[in-house]
Amino acid sequence: MSIHILNGPNLNRLGKREPEIYGHTTLAEVEAWSRAAAGDIQVVFRQTNAEHQLIDWVHEAIDSGARGIIINPAGLTFTSVPVMDALKMFPGPVIELHISNIHRREAIYHKSLMSGVVTAVIAGLGPRGYPTAVRSMSEMLSDQAIG
């Protein structure tokens, strides 16, 4: 059983980019926390600055039989119909994740194209939102297995 944790543009700059919003935690630390929270669940953890690559990775998750996706589309959240369309094809649970609370930011960040097609949204927990999302995904997958 695997989950894919997919990260969009500029998240490779975590720890350096706007630390007053995103903190000082690096993406490598986020990945380690996510893997630790996953326990026995296999994690595919990726980051890209390219929209097409994020779409290809969603397709790969579909084709490989991944059980869940956790995605932080970053700036593509508000602009990418193609990423949204790819997520609509995924048959399992999808969690949209944001480090900051997008609803407390500038108006441009208030309307997520992804939120209408995902299972759940986590925003504003900082980098610790990642292990929270992994634990939540694990519980969702367990509930599916029981039901």
Automatic annotation (TrEMBL):
<feature type="binding site">
    <location>
        <begin position="99"/>
        <end position="100"/>
    </location>
    <ligand>
        <name>substrate</name>
    </ligand>
</feature>
<comment type="function">
    <text>Catalyzes a trans-dehydration via an enolate intermediate.</text>
</comment>
<feature type="binding site">
    <location>
        <position position="72"/>
    </location>
    <ligand>
        <name>substrate</name>
    </ligand>
</feature>
<dbReference type="InterPro" id="IPR001874">
    <property type="entry name" value="DHquinase_II"/>
</dbReference>
<feature type="active site" description="Proton acceptor">
    <location>
        <position position="22"/>
    </location>
</feature>
<comment type="similarity">
    <text>Belongs to the type-II 3-dehydroquinase family.</text>
</comment>
<dbReference type="GO" id="GO:0019631">
    <property type="term" value="P:quinate catabolic process"/>
</dbReference>
<dbReference type="InterPro" id="IPR036441">
    <property type="entry name" value="DHquinase_II_sf"/>
</dbReference>
<protein>
    <recommendedName>
        <fullName>3-dehydroquinate dehydratase</fullName>
        <ecNumber>4.2.1.10</ecNumber>
    </recommendedName>
</protein>
<feature type="active site" description="Proton donor">
    <location>
        <position position="98"/>
    </location>
</feature>
<dbReference type="GO" id="GO:0009423">
    <property type="term" value="P:chorismate biosynthetic process"/>
</dbReference>
<feature type="site" description="Transition state stabilizer">
    <location>
        <position position="17"/>
    </location>
</feature>
<dbReference type="GO" id="GO:0008652">
    <property type="term" value="P:amino acid biosynthetic process"/>
</dbReference>
<dbReference type="InterPro" id="IPR018509">
    <property type="entry name" value="DHquinase_II_CS"/>
</dbReference>
<feature type="binding site">
    <location>
        <position position="85"/>
    </location>
    <ligand>
        <name>substrate</name>
    </ligand>
</feature>
<keyword id="KW-0057">Aromatic amino acid biosynthesis</keyword>
<keyword id="KW-0028">Amino-acid biosynthesis</keyword>
<dbReference type="Pfam" id="PF01220">
    <property type="entry name" value="DHquinase_II"/>
</dbReference>
<comment type="pathway">
    <text>Metabolic intermediate biosynthesis; chorismate biosynthesis; chorismate from D-erythrose 4-phosphate and phosphoenolpyruvate: step 3/7.</text>
</comment>
<dbReference type="GO" id="GO:0003855">
    <property type="term" value="F:3-dehydroquinate dehydratase activity"/>
</dbReference>
<dbReference type="GO" id="GO:0009073">
    <property type="term" value="P:aromatic amino acid family biosynthetic process"/>
</dbReference>
<comment type="subunit">
    <text>Homododecamer.</text>
</comment>
<keyword id="KW-0456">Lyase</keyword>
